[in-house]
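Form 7-S
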Amino acid sequence: MENQTVSQPKKHVARLEVRRDLCIGAASCVAVAPSAFELDPENKAVLRRKVPPPSSDMTVREDLEDQAIDDETLLLAAQSCPTQAIILYDEDGKQIYP
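Output:
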């Protein structure tokens, strides 16, 4: 049986969201990808978008403030979340993490 690496997504991250009901404000996503995530005044993770305000709502990749951020960094940020509050989707709308 082959070992598979979990650090590389199989599909391109096209959309992402933060589940506010799951977020506990650990800020691990901010530590891993500060150009994509920040904490709001309620200590919840939000996505940094080109057009303010930052939001936890479903965001298409093209609307992120950091257009150069790669899939691996977004996946690592999502994997760092202790409550799996960051959801990643591919181009077809299928959930690729968690």
